[in-house]
Amino acid sequence: MILYGHxxxxxxxxxxxxxxxxISSLGLYTSQWGIVLYLHKKKECTQVELCKYLGVExxxxxxxxxxxxxxxxxxxxxxxxxxxxxxxxxxxxxxxFPEWQQAAESVEVEAVNNISEEELENFNKxxxxxxxxLD
Length: 135
Hints:
CATH class of the domain at 27-102: Mainly Alpha
Largest sheet: 3 strands, antiparallel
């Protein structure tokens, strides 16, 4: 019996649980971290882009963005038409980003403990191929 997908899902659950333990005290959760990380990298994007990147439905993103906006971490502005919304991080979020990033990196360091660079490189290549196969 092949359980690659199940094992990947279990790894993601463990990773998210540990990350939540580290960043929740900093006022953020893993579902929000994915959005913040993407916005930090892109500087600004649309809700549609976020949905595609995270692979989640619009209502889910809308709720999470509303919460981030209430927290003063993002700004949403209208785009070319009323349906398009542009999102970017606030100054408050940019100031907090290094702390969130450090917490996330500490989980990654823990997760890859005793795994060689070669093993990690092969793992990343395999994951990329699997994602391309499913897209």
